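Hi, here's the filled form for the chain we discussed.

Project: internal
Contact: R.S.
Residues: 520
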Amino acid sequence: MRTLIDDLLAEQGRLQTPAAKFAEVHDREPDLADHYRSLIPLTKPGKDEQYAFEVSLDRCTGCKACVSACHNLNGLDDDESWRDTGALLGGEAAPSWQQTVTTACHHCESPECMHGCPVGAYEKDEDTGIVRHLDDQCIGCSYCILKCPFDVPKYSEARGIVRKCDMCHQRLAEGEAPACVQACPTEAIRIIKVPTNIPAIPERRRTEHEKNLFQSTIPNPQSGLPSSNITFPTTRYVGRKVPTTAVAADRDQLTPEHAHWPLVFMLVLTHVGIGLVGSAGFQPTASSAPLYLGTLLFNAGMIAAVFHLGQPHKAWRFFLGLRTSWLSREILAFSLFAPIPLVLCALPLLPDFPFKENVSILVQASVLPVGLLAVLTSVMIYADTRRSLWAVPLSAPRFFGTVFAFLLLGASVEFPLLRPFAAAAIAFKTLPELWVLRLADIDTDWSPLRHSARLQLGPLGNITFWRFALAALAMAAVIFSPWFALPLLLASEILERQLFFQSVQAPKMPGTFGPAHPTH
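And the returned structure, exactly as it came back:
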């Protein structure tokens, strides 16, 4: 007797889906070693060549077999994924057009993850061009995640380090296809060899690299897709032509980014501390209350930074990245500043010694030069990620504004005439934030900054309100009492740094479409 199940199975056989065809081939030819070797080069890359992924858009169905295979073969955590699938939508000119996309590490010619790492935990293999992450070197700072414009490195909570796709380099070395390549039922992914001596000129690159990635084929700044001109990725997407109106399916999802609370407190407390310690130069004695408070807050910020690292005991290796990484430079700059407030606090308690007064003057004079240099490295850390909200014109007034607002606030304790200037400094540092917020209504096209403005006025609206409300209260309070204004402004600055992290538009490859995720 024929059952419904029998009918359904027969129907599936007639449909000849990719999975059905894949199973049929396996049944017919159990040993497919030769078949899989056809999906990878038979010889190693030569001079000025490297391995790269090639993805056929015509063949990709979004079945996620590649995602599952990568996860299983590499023993990833439950919430960890080195390969993702997303979608492109056609936009206004082609509203019914849709294309699924599979993506992993692009093993770029100029990998920003490697350049930004403060401890040398990345290497680009000279023979294959594969960008590998060295797990035993990683300190878990996650700066490579911010530097990568494709959202490739993933942080592992269980291990306290970052990990990413290495193109299954061990398998390639033995003539075996990577897990994702071998698992794809439609052979949409393969490994090819590409040239690496192409000049870093976008026009040449589009011609000689056959239009790598989507930025090279979609001259559309509203697409929400990352630029290929930052790291020069080697992945090739071939086959189906992508319309110029295509956009990332998840472009308009207003999902706040990670808050990075240890970094929020580090950036606020260290900058506040530098300002208050600097204000001690305006006081009649070096042992002023702003100096002690500034020293306490600065060191609290330095301690908070440690909690952002998954492997803090390895952070002493930061000097390895001084040549390329702004994070290494920030660690050095803040380490140079750290002893200064402690010396200023200790000098009045020490017995007199020759040139004691000269030493005090010299140390006090070094506060602002060294402190502002340290703040500059903080600005550059985020500007170097190429994220629009973190560009120098927007982040520098925020960071330096915090220093000078608290410097004037601390100085106004002794000199009341400086209180209006302190209020003005508080108002001045809100101007870049207000300029971004106006884009939510004025700018009709999608842009990273408009996305940030919509986040701040939408899911993060309550935080935005209290950030400006507390700043306004601090401006009014400073006229009457700097000490009353200080906690108000401190709370306002913490909310400002939270918005700094959570409302940034983080570049990434296209994700899936659907309703926005719940906000925090």
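Let me know if anything looks off before we file it.
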